Amino acid sequence: MSVRRSPLFLCALALAVALAPGEVVEKGAGGGQPPPGPETEEPGCPVCLWRKHSKEMRLESIKSQILSKLRLKEAPNITREVVNQLLPKAPPLQQILDLHDFQGDAFPQDEYLEEDEYHATTETVISMAQHTDPVVQIEGNPHCCYFNFSPKIMFTKVVKAQLWVYLRPVQHTSTVYLQILRLKPVTEEGSRHIRIRSLKIDLHSRLGHWQSIDFKHVLQNWFKQPQNNWGIEINAFDPNGNDLAVTSLGPGAEGLHPFMELRVLENNKRSRRNLGLDCDEHSTESRCCRYPLTVDFEAFGWDWIIAPKRYKANYCSGQCEYMFMQKYPHTHLVQQANPRGSAGPCCTPTKMSPINMLYFNDKQQIIYGKIPGMVVDRCGCS
């Protein structure tokens, strides 16, 4: 006598095979039993039980997909201690780590957005020095430097920020001590100067010298607390006490004013009509829906993945009744004519996007690349 499987079970089996090529997922991460049929569903919340199995199968599928797409037969045997020993503490690597520390939380409304392929996106911003507010001055000093940023820029992700200062030419090699002070409104009992950066520079240029200073962390604090941005004072004294930093904003210093260079990651997405259902874990929705799922590679024990340590993968779960199939009328008619010839429509991803990954391969080489199809953006019945 043949055993009749539920449509949800057949959909899950088909989805597991499709998402993990070359490997059929026979059991989930939580215990080895197949997803429940109608006879084994929990009376209190059958939708919750099915959703739990969908999530477990999605996690197992993600593991096999990553190894398959990276052309790895198994996860590299690299522990966290080995990673700490091999990982260079170099600026280019730090930029990637800052950019991809956790993917999927940069724009909370991603589920209602899609790529805007028409409008220009900002990548680099140059902000020129302006005069400081009188409340930070004593007898008109310091008159430089204040940097103004638009609200649009303040809500972008800062990838890199450099302060550029021009130092006047010297006739002989000199050691210059450059210092940057953060300004505060002048009070009767407090100083307005707070030193935030100090550099020792050996100058030997008779033509002048542009000096860059990493300003990313200061700028990030300004963007979080803009009320603290009153500007900075810049000094660069040689051994004779001469200030070589060009901070005059008046005539004669054109093109030599201090400026801030920002590299930003702008949200180049625009609103769209959401074509699929989005639910949370407390939803009682029985139809096909997209649910949130955060993948934690450290929980997998996969220390060989350097970044991201976590990412939002999402998963699909729910029923695809024929009455929900208005988008596919031909399929609906075929199913009506031959209901036993197919498992019926399944709740599957209809749109997926990639993630960027920095990882060690099995030869202990550091690789940075993009893995396609790792984030479920939309779910539907097909």
Automatic annotation (TrEMBL):
Keywords: Cleavage on pair of basic residues, Cytokine, Disulfide bond, Growth factor, Secreted, Signal. It holds the Pfam family TGFb_propeptide. Residues 270-382 form the TGF-beta family profile domain. Its main location: secreted. One of its GO terms (cellular component) is protein-containing complex. It is found in: Secreted. It comes from the Eukaryota. InterPro entries: Cystine-knot_cytokine, TGF-b_C, TGF-b_propeptide, TGF-beta-rel, TGFb_CS. One of its GO terms (molecular function) is cytokine activity. GO terms for biological process: activin receptor signaling pathway; amacrine cell differentiation; camera-type eye morphogenesis; cell population proliferation; metanephros development; negative regulation of amacrine cell differentiation; negative regulation of cell population proliferation; positive regulation of SMAD protein signal transduction. Residues 1-22 form the signal peptide. Belongs to the TGF-beta family. This is Growth differentiation factor 11.
